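Workshop exercise sheet. Pairs work together: one partner reads the sequence aloud, the other fills in the structure field after running the prediction. Swap roles for the next sheet.
Pair: D.N. / O.F.
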Amino acid sequence: MELSKLFELNDIAKKDASFYNKKRFIYKFFKTPQKERIFTCLIGPRGVGKTILLRQLAAERSDSFYLSMDTVNNESLFDLIKILNERYKINYFFIDEIHFLRKYDAELKKIFDFLKVNVVFTSSVSLSLYESSYDLSRRVKIIKIYPFSFREFLYFKKDVFLSALSLKDIFEDRYSEEYLKYEYFFEEYLKGGVFPFYFENKDIIESLKNVCDKIIKKDIAFFANLKMEEIYEMEKMFNFMALSQVEDLNYSSLSKNLGITKYKVIRYVDLLEKSFLVNKILPYGTNVLKEPKILITPPYRLIYKNYLECVGALREDFVVESLKIAEYDLFYLKSKRGEKTPDFFVTENNERFVIEVGGKGKGRSQFKNFSNYKKIMFYHGDWVKDENKKPMFLLGYLK
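Structure field:
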């Protein structure tokens, strides 16, 4: 592509950034001076706002350039950046969807080693970064950018900024009434407010369908070099998972119900997880079958069922996603036949929590054999006065 066209696209991208007056919370990372030169990679699902964030960063500097790799046609990225740096004194490069460039890891290594420039780039498929054949570990800092937490949703929805909480804060009720008064927005959040495009007045279900379709048929298919038959199998598997109950999903059940080998199931689930469509949770303990429990990333179930039909599973999806984003050690508890146990086991600073997820009617019987643990039942519904029961939406304030 001619340089003049790239400059035109760069100008359009920077101008586009001016239409967005708010910034994702992750933006503050880029305001912290780095001790050493290192490239930065933003990994996150489609629709999470990576492109807008990249354009906002580019717009702040006169010596910056924005590139989207789906417009560069596999030209040498090294040669292009070398020309822009030497001829136009451009020092900062913001590169969108870099996984569309073949052998981009080798190009980045060469740029880092031989050009004194700074690079921030994005990808929707994290698997390609972690399985790079080149050593990018000392050259690239990987930052995951997730959909909105409930806390960030409130900031974009109502311009409300509340400090983050910890799980222990929630357990010990260390929060003000201010945190509770926004509960009435939680259902709206679960119905699609997870993604920034919710605020663009689009058909949220149609938007979710489009995002999901592109992730499977474009991003994963491109990176993993899938055949048409494999793309169909993965799509069928994701549909089945989204329609199923949470407790029924593991490698064995998927293999049995879909008639595909467990090897393929494991591969497909791994690709879907690395593309932010599912979450895998391992069982707690050593004497249990080491198959993970598989949950859908919220709110993708809404593509296949209406809210009231899937709200139970959606609650569990939300709890897992919130704890995962906050980087807690999270496991599911595998019960023995006929025995009731809480849903999850979580640790925070050497303290052990057992967590039950449900509506307001759930009782305490699941906690019977866990006297030495901190017990929390996260409910969704009318307010209940109970020392163990906490409103589920409070997990949306986690750090």
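Discussion prompt: The CA atoms of residues 198 and 317 lie 19 Å apart. What would you look at next?
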